[in-house]
Amino acid sequence: MKGVFVFLFISFLGTNLKAQQYILIENRGQVHFFDYQAVKHEYGTYRISKDHMLAEDISGYHLVGYAWKLDSLILYLEREGVVTEKSVLWDSSMVVPQRVSLQGTNLMSYYRQLKDPDAVYQCEDLTIKVRDRGHVTCYKGDSLLWEKLLRVSSFGIGTYGLGFQNPVVSQDKKKLLFQYATNFKHYLVEIDVLTGKETKIGRNAEGTPYSYSPDGNYILYRARNHQFVMYDKMDPKRKTPLECSSWKNAFWLYR
């Protein structure tokens, strides 16, 4: 494996409705994946009937992301701040959906608080600007759709790092998912692209990933207790922890 330092922001376009909904997980020093459509909800949790092994021994490493190279799945494994790559051959008969993502343009300016502090994200004609104080604006073409302001008191210590952060777009490009940070907690907020209507999803662990399922019906995120939660948009009151509590990381699998 080759050591690399990686900062990735990858944009994939297009969807494949016939593709499966796979989840990639790190669990007990191994990397697995399973088809979420085959998972059953029983007795207050999700039961996984069958999963597939990708890497048997990654002890000492943590799965921090993945990418594709032709028919190989590249696993990014981190250890003591260094990221290495592990290539795994993927069965081409298992169709993985293409991902719709926001492409960042000036993120380093945003995080370093330079002259232009806005982080700009784009997907086709959709543009989202997140200012360094957590304000967010959404444009479709040249038209302003809505603006959200920071609703947090600074307590005299500043508001950098608070408010709306790190947007994720749904596959149909109709919803945006943000982490909203206050001085005391972090939680996920979904915003309708056209109307700006907000829906509070739940409190999540700071600095952990969150994402939509390929069909847009579920949101996978890590809760405050660091257990993964599957938010069911069809039944919002059912936020059932996925088995098992030993998962270290999990991602929806996209091309």
Task: Explain what this protein looks like in three dimensions.
By secondary structure, the chain is mainly β. Helix content is about 0%, strand content about 45%. The protein has one helix and 23 strands. The strands form six sheets. Strands 10-11-12-13-14 form a five-stranded antiparallel beta sheet. A hairpin with a 5-residue loop joins strand 20 (about 220) and strand 21. The longest helix is centred in the middle third of the chain and has 5 residues, at about 105-110. The two termini are about 20 Å apart.
Please provide a brief summary of the model.
With 255 residues, the chain is mostly beta strands. Helix content is 2%, strand content 47%.
Low confidence ranges: 1-17, 155-159
Structural class: mainly beta
Mean pLDDT: 80
List the secondary-structure elements in sequence, H or E.
Answer: EEEEEEEEEEHEEEEEEEEEEEEE
Fraction in helix? under 10%
Say how many strands there are. 23
Largest sheet: 5 strands, antiparallel
What's the end-to-end separation, in Å? 22 Å
Strand adjacency order, main sheet: 10-11-12-13-14
- Overall, the morphology is globular
The radius of gyration computed from the alpha-carbon positions, rounded to a whole number of angstroms, is 18 Å
Strand content: over 45%
> How many separate helices?
1
What are the salient characteristics of this protein?
single chain; 255 residues; 5-stranded antiparallel sheet; 1 helix
Tell me the layout of helices and strands.
Elements: E1 3-4, E2 22-27, E3 30-35, E4 40-42, E5 45-47, E6 52-55, E7 62-69, E8 72-79, E9 82-89, E10 103-104, H1 107-111, E11 119-123, E12 126-130, E13 136-140, E14 143-148, E15 163-169, E16 175-181, E17 186-192, E18 198-203, E19 210-212, E20 218-222, E21 228-232, E22 239-241, E23 247-252
Antiparallel strand pairs: 1-9, 2-3, 2-23, 3-6, 4-5, 7-8, 8-9, 10-11, 11-12, 12-13, 13-14, 15-16, 16-17, 17-18, 19-20, 20-21, 21-22
